[in-house]
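Researcher: Here's my situation. A collaborator sent me these components and asked whether they could plausibly form a single complex. I don't have experimental data yet, so a predicted model of the whole assembly would be a useful starting point for our discussion.
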Amino acid sequence: MRIVILGMGSVGRGVLASIMEKDLPFTVTGIADSKSGIVDPSGIDPGKVMTIKREKGICGNPGITPIDVVRQADYDVLVEVTTTNATTGEPATSHIREAIMRGRHVVTSNKGPLALHFRELKALAREHDVSLRYEATVAGAIPVMHTIENGLAGNRINAIYGVLNGTCNYILTRMAEEGLSYEQALIEARELGYAEADPTYDVKGIDAAIKVVILANTIWNMNVGLSDVEVTGIDLLTTAAIRLAEEQDCTIRLLGEAVPNKNLLRVSPRILPRDHPLVLNGTLNALTLSTDLAGDITLIGKGAGSKETASAIIGDILFIKRMYAGRA
Amino acid sequence: MRIVILGMGSVGRGVLASIMEKDLPFTVTGIADSKSGIVDPSGIDPGKVMTIKREKGICGNPGITPIDVVRQADYDVLVEVTTTNATTGEPATSHIREAIMRGRHVVTSNKGPLALHFRELKALAREHDVSLRYEATVAGAIPVMHTIENGLAGNRINAIYGVLNGTCNYILTRMAEEGLSYEQALIEARELGYAEADPTYDVKGIDAAIKVVILANTIWNMNVGLSDVEVTGIDLLTTAAIRLAEEQDCTIRLLGEAVPNKNLLRVSPRILPRDHPLVLNGTLNALTLSTDLAGDITLIGKGAGSKETASAIIGDILFIKRMYAGRA
């Protein structure tokens, strides 16, 4: 498979590192970060690019933009792993559209295009007979999309419940375990690299809500957006509220829920029994799929990280390779 | 897809019921139980067969055997869901071999053939360019094989740890929760239909060990059998031992483990912290896959049941359909 990688942040570098370490059957024919690009039909040495990026801060020629790479490179799969912009979805949406219209498959970790233009992009991919895969957009390393698509094919999924934001889960874990205030736990999360300098997106529940949107659109072919989700964050939670829950063998977790037959799309702090399968400590993510045949299936794993997200990306590329080879 | 179903026990009936309820794109062209069979290239009405089976105890013509159906019917996929014989693997192994040699795909819930003839059957399927799928053999409704094959493709799996027998998990749960003795909990499990009249296979850890064998052969292309697994059951566990664990915020679970770089294949009662992800109550199953990129991924769900096993079977048939259609 010839692939092009757009984005040289933690995810892009994770994908390149895995290709190097694992001798995966991929040839990288184009790479771009926000400031430069490189196109080479004969294959780019991932190690060399990583070194250049580390030393100079850019990966290639400053005259080449990401969209140039999308248009000029020769590839089977576009790996779109630029930074998510949840308001405009750009520039990722343009990259994805352009690649699909060139008849290329797309694998992405970028939540913006999926949250904002789900139906359009899926239809465009169908029209051009290519695959658009986005395992990495929800719950990091946990293969939720593969499970929905294949493992549970034949089931009707009636509802989903998930802990979809590791930053919030870390903060809530620490508030419960150590009696920290929200502010103290947030500072700790920042120091450990689990929270961004501006944590709004995570702690207000927006990131979790975007994942609920992507799941709902995928599972039930909905056409919903962020504004359709009732969202409450964790930033107003008090230590006293958590202590009260703990006194009753419960705790509080930020839960994303989608239950179509109750018209429910919600992200909010919920009181859960401490032995509930979705009560996990630290930055873990988890998702329960409630189905008609298989009952409840719960998946637990790491929701973020460079290697973890690369795992999802690589799984998607290999799945495209397998599907288009046409053998089980 | 034209399918043949061998076995009209709980799993076979579950598959037929799902085909009826869900209007799945399958035509059933042959069915057999241990005493009778029916072949009809124009399609068998699942409802009619279920009624006949309920009323007469057989599903078709007493002159037609399962192997006749394998040989004579016209089908794409053989669904082998006869009762497991863990000692001989028969007659299921013969059914599977014959179908593969006729160039048919096979989907099975039967652990015998996989535990005893894994490598031979996989090689035979490869040789005949057909698919042999067995999601239902391990952990019931939980799509562990799909996760290993696709969701985590690109990962190296370093170890697996699982609660793979619901009967044992139920007994251990009740011993811990209510202070029941092993014998009392076993009686209760029998009354609820969670344990067989002869529970040896479950409580001695044999069933869990067979699943460890199937997983190890699948993940690491091993060639191991039941005798390669160090097996200790739960039948000698005392209430006192469980109480002791509980006093230290731990409990005991029957754990299946495979860790190749420690040469470890083992099923044994293990002391685990009560908040460990594999500590679940009742008849649930769970499996943790320890990987290099994705970290630990844990899957939890129902390990048995008619509908639950049908979910795995149907997922496998639909996957074959998808793969051989050659589109992602």
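Model: Some features of this prediction you could bring to your collaborator: The radius of gyration of chain A is 20 Å. The longest strand of chain A covers residues 250-259.
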